[in-house]
Design a protein that fits this description.
The protein has 12 helices and 8 strands. It is of the alpha/beta class. It has a single domain, classed as TIM Barrel, CATH 3.20.20.80. The protein is globular, with a radius of gyration of 22 Å. The N and C termini lie far apart (95 Å). InterPro entries: GH.
Length: 367
């Protein structure tokens, strides 16, 4: 019995040491993964970029035939005809920049094909005089996803099929962070000097969906990965929620240029601008325009134009994403909302509001 007890004690001590070593190893790995060696632009670099690119104005672009990022980028549903047609409508009203979301799963399934499709998209956009803001990660909407056929839209539900990247899988698969690192570095290396790309938006709304500071390690990682490649375009992650103080501090201190989201009316939006512009960096509003919230083209886009702040509204053409419906006001029968929340055009290219299009054209210099 005594010998057995000594043996068990030895086993317990061994396991305790092993567990401690494993914990220390994991902590070291976490520290390495989130350690940031800043390669942030100088003020001079940021100002030169702003001078070269001028006033960026455009939309968050999801072709009307795609419900989410995977349907955009998978080979079976990559719809160049629709992309070309809809970007043509954007060109006609003077828009010169689109913000477009990527997804690591589409890359993981078909790495070379994915990058070839990115290049094809850039060719089409460039033919219309449109630069691109690519977005890597996203904490919004559905937590899970899979490659292949995507779900059909839920009638009247805003972004019913949009998916996060990487979503909950980041906390379930300990190897996923390694995949994400290869993905980001591969894409950045391929397009690091591509003049058709205006900005790399590294992480959309980190901390959304209740993640809060759980998103901080990935946020730090993606900046670190981007700095290792150091593309010639600016890298940024837009602030969007004043209560996420830790995330906001990191984003603002480490972005090459300031990007932000604001769906409020003119007074609140101007207050946000006044706070952010104290940093002295070029600014781009990468999401605005929610009609129900008193954020319109007529009352927000002129402010952004006067302040020389990039103006990227949510939505170009109404389609499968259903973002003409409000975030929290589903219409289950799929009937027309009394007031569109987002979008500029109907699927046939006619404007939702000719008055809005006239304002846009007046600001972009289209007669």
């Amino acid at each position: 019995m005594k010998r057995t007890g000594t043996y068990l004690l030895a086993i317990m001590l061994f396991l305790g040491v092993a567990c401690q070593l494993k914990k220390e190893k994991q902590e070291a790995a976490d520290t390495k993964n989130t350690e940031v060696v800043s390669q942030k632009w100088t003020q001079e670099q940021a100002d030169a970029w702003a001078e070269e690119n001028g006033w960026l104005r455009g939309s968050n672009f999801n072709p009307s035939t795609s419900i989410n990022q995977l349907e955009v980028w998978q080979a079976e549903t990559f719809d160049t005809e629709t992309i070309d047609r809809e970007l043509g409508w954007a060109e006609e009203i003077g828009l010169n920049c689109m913000r477009v979301y990527l997804h690591h799963v589409a890359w993981e399934v078909d790495k070379d094909g994915f990058k070839n499709r990115m290049n094809k998209y850039l060719e089409i956009a460039d033919s219309h005089g449109i630069k691109t803001i690519f977005v890597f990660f996203d904490d919004c909407w559905n937590a899970t996803y899979q490659a292949g056929k995507q779900p059909d839209p839920k009638p009247g539900v805003h972004n019913s099929g949009w998916v996060r990247d990487p979503g909950d899988l980041l906390y379930e698969d300990e190897n996923l962070v390694n995949v994400l690192e290869v993905y980001v570095k591969d894409v950045l290396t391929t397009f690091k000097d591509d003049k058709r790309i205006a900005i790399w938006d590294l992480y959309n709304e980190p901390g959304n969906s209740g993640y809060s500071n759980r998103s901080m390690p990935l946020l730090k990682n993606v900046f670190n990965w981007a700095w290792e490649i150091r593309p010639s375009q600016p890298v940024s992650a837009g602030v969007w929620n004043a209560s996420l103080t830790d995330l906001n501090k990191f984003q603002l201190e480490n972005s090459d240029i300031i990007t932000y989201h604001n769906y409020e009316g003119p007074e609140q939006h101007q207050a946000a601008i006044d706070t952010l512009k104290t940093r002295g960096l070029p600014m781009v509003c990468t999401e605005y325009m929610a009609r129900r919230n008193n954020s319109y083209f007529q009352n927000i886009m002129p402010i952004l134009h006067n302040e020389n702040i990039g103006a990227i509204n949510w939505g170009l053409v109404a389609g499968k994403s259903n973002t003409k419906y409000a975030w929290d006001e589903p219409i289950p029968d799929g009937s027309e909302p009394p007031l569109w929340f987002h979008e500029i055009f109907h699927p046939d290219g006619t404007p939702y509001s000719q008055e809005e299009v006239d304002v846009i054209k007046s600001l972009t210099g289209i007669n």
